[in-house]
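Structure in, sequence out. Go:
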């Protein structure tokens, strides 16, 4: 690949940009649903790359790496990993809602009922799927998909194309990501735990005062009804709470992918 002319260089720059969009489209839960055909997601990433190619400045891309197939392959892997990291890390609120739904289902007795999740083609809890689909609807309602595309365009300024840094130079704060994932999920599940602990205490008193009553038979529908009552109250509040977290975690994802930026001596 010696003596590459300018049009060929532009094509290679476009391919690198396309790979970053491709990683985002196939890693973010917003776009990864199997209900959207794979060719459609691929074409969508191509169109986004075409629309975004104009913001890249030619003097910011070192063309020295374009003379080697090995270097080009390494640059492609880097751009794909950046897109995957951006889509996966910024989707923490959606993942937290799914985990919270799984925990809520196990608390109120729905963990035995598993349904097929149409977005991932895997078995999941009913409440986990409900939380995720509700969050996904509000995500599109609040233009979260546009924020994702805007964040990737912003990443082109933070982490320019063409830098030969294949792997991040630090841990990208993934420990903080996991910690906040479970903390956020537990904060959503705490009202259910509190309500059902009070229900268990009441059923315990009932078992002591009316020994003839089968508390195990009575307790299951009581816990389910109480769980649905709490879910009715908490679901709108949870969506409002999650709304404040989307932009924060997109900023966190942008800060994490800075690990791929080359250090200028």
């Amino acid at each position: 690949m010696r003596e590459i002319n300018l049009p060929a260089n532009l094509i290679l720059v476009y391919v690198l940009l396309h790979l970053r969009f491709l990683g985002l489209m196939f890693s973010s839960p917003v776009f990864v649903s199997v209900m959207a055909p794979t060719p459609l997601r691929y074409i969508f990433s191509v169109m986004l790359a075409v629309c975004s190619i104009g913001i890249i400045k030619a003097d910011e891309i070192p063309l020295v790496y374009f003379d080697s197939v090995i270097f080009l392959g390494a640059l492609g892997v880097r751009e794909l990993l950046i897109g995957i990291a951006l889509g996966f890390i910024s989707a923490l609120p959606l993942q937290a809602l799914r985990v919270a739904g799984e925990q809520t289902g196990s608390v109120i007795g729905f963990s035995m009922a598993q349904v097929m999740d149409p977005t991932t083609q895997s078995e999941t809890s009913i409440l986990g799927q409900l939380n995720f689909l509700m969050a996904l609807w509000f995500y599109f309602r609040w233009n979260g998909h546009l924020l994702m595309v805007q964040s990737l365009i912003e990443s082109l300024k933070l982490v320019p194309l063409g830098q030969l840094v294949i792997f991040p130079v630090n841990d990208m704060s993934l420990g903080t990501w996991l910690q906040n994932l479970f903390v956020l999920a537990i904060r959503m599940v705490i009202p259910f735990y509190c309500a059902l602990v009070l229900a268990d205490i009441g059923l315990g008193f009932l078992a002591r005062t009316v020994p003839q009553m089968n508390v195990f038979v009575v307790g299951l529908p009581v816990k389910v009804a109480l769980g649905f009552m709490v879910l009715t109250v908490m679901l709108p509040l949870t969506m409002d709470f999650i709304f404040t977290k989307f932009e924060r975690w997109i900023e966190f994802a942008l800060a994490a992918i800075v690990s791929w930026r080359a250090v200028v001596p």
